[in-house]
Design goal:
Its cofactor is pyridoxal 5'-phosphate. InterPro entries: DiNH2opropionate_NH3_lyase, TrpB-like_PALP, TrpB-like_PALP_sf. Keywords: Lyase, Pyridoxal phosphate. One of its GO terms (molecular function) is diaminopropionate ammonia-lyase activity. Pfam families: PALP. With about 400 residues, the protein is α/β, with parallel strands linked by helices. It has two domains: about 270 residues, Rossmann fold; about 110 residues, 3-Layer(aba) Sandwich (Rossmann fold). It contains 17 helices and eleven strands. The strands form two sheets. Strands 1-10-9-8-11-3-2 form a seven-stranded mixed β-sheet, sandwiched between helices. Helix 6 runs parallel beside helix 7. The longest helix is centred in the middle third of the chain and has 20 residues.
Length: about 400
């Protein structure tokens, strides 16, 4: 499925709240806070000239978030960042003064954090980030996971000391259960999706993601002409599209949101012109994107600054995982999890369809930006799909460098 944005809000200015959340000043503050993280390092921006030549575009750049903060996913930028912000804000109220990030590990702030419990629902990556953030500040974390989350992903979250709570049903069921329990117990929900009356914290999560956009723009020889970003509830797509729209203005790229065909809540929302919940059907291999209800904040952004919406099938996602692991020409290999390469899968599908290619104005001069949103967050599943262990794929680059 492919749709151009025909919603009434298309090309209207961002809501002032979203413009502030995703603006340059806020993004600069995200980067300032990241500098105080012990394991912070910019993730690689990888050029794929071989693939670009093969599909007939000028350049493809992949922001490889599989290396982010030791968590293997872009989500490391969101949940932990929001937890830290919330702890600092709570400390300001408790202490009656301004509290800076430099005081995060002070005895006063740690005492405030110890009295807090943060909670969220997750498919895996967001919960890992929230749990890591709680561990960093000394707060307690309660993470709700639905029945489709693998034991390996649950264990990866639990290692940060979080209390793991299983919920029957889908991701959206776990979101509702987390909100219910947190309200009853006085916990703070740190969700990456939003609903009526709950917008600010998901906005902070999205704000954290702006760091990857700033890093990428600094490294690219020229700004991209086209961007393809995958979407679950819409947070990463909205953060990238919103920040690019603010930063680049009239020079902003043509932005396409890519959904799994089996859980296309953003695409169906675009088709309806308002937020809709899609029916739960057969699970998708793109587990981190298996969401059936969009984030209201994310949609408010995307309805204004996304240019197109499309779906990809499970086979498309798998093909891109294998293509990145076994690159063409002299391109470097990239370890992309089941959801990681979905934006690139959208590009490959778009250029193969003359009508979509023309609608998006993709030509030989196009400069494409995509994000590998996750590495092999479930190594066993990755090896089953690709036929190689993640370490074996990464070793290809080391062997190439030695040669």
């Amino acid at each position: 499925m492919f749709l151009l944005n025909t919603t009434p809000d298309y090309r209207r200015p961002l809501d002032p709240r979203d413009a502030e959340t995703l603006g340059v000043a806020s993004a600069e503050e995200v980067e300032r806070q990241l500098a105080f993280r012990d394991n912070h390092a910019e993730t690689p921006l990888v050029a794929l000239p071989g693939l670009a030549a093969e599909i007939g575009v000028a350049a493809i750049h992949v922001k490889d978030e599989g290396h982010r903060l030791g968590l293997g996913s872009f989500k490391a930028l969101g949940g932990a960042y929001a937890v830290i912000r919330l702890v600092l804000e709570h400390a300001e109220k408790e202490l009656g003064r301004t509290v800076d990030i430099t005081e995060l590990h002070s005895s006063e702030v740690r005492a405030v954090a110890r009295a807090m419990t943060v909670a969220c629902a997750t498919d895996g990556n967001h919960g890992r980030s929230v749990a890591q953030g709680a561990q960093l500040v000394g707060a307690r974390a309660a993470i709700f996971v639905h029945s489709g989350v693998s034991a390996e992903r649950v264990a990866a979250i639990a290692r940060f000391g979080a209390d793991m709570i299983r919920v029957n049903g889908t991701y959206d069921d776990s979101v509702r259960e987390a909100a219910r329990v947190a309200e009853a117990k006085g916990w703070t929900i740190v969700s990456d999706t939003s609903w009526p009356g709950y917008e600010r914290i998901p906005g902070l999560v999205m704000q954290g993601y702006t760091a990857l956009v700033r890093e990428a723009l600094r490294k690219m020889p020229e700004p991209p002409t086209h961007v393809f970003i995958q979407s679950g509830v819409g947070g990463i797509a909205a953060a990238v599209a919103g920040h690019l729209a603010i930063k680049l203005g009239d020079r902003r790229p043509i932005f396409t949101v890519v959904d799994p065909a089996r859980s296309a809540c953003i695409v169906e929302t675009a088709r309806a012109g308002h937020p809709v919940t899609v029916a739960h059907g057969e699970p998708t291999v793109m587990a981190m994107l298996e969401c059936y209800e969009p984030s209201l904040v994310a949609w408010r952004v995307l309805s204004r600054v996304a240019d197109a919406f499309m779906t990809v099938d499970d086979e498309d996602a798998i093909a891109v995982m294998r293509r990145l692991a076994n690159p063409v020409a002299a391109d470097p290999a990239i370890v992309a999890g089941e959801s990681g390469g979905v934006g690139l899968a959208g590009l490959v599908k778009a250029v193969a369809d003359p009508a979509i290619k023309a609608a998006l104005r993709i030509d030989a001069d196009a400069r494409i930006f995509v994000v590998n949103t996750e590495g092999a967050t479930d190594p066993g599943k990755y090896q089953e799909i690709v036929g190689l262990a993640p370490a074996a794929v990464a070793a290809k680059n080391e062997a190439g460098a030695e040669a």
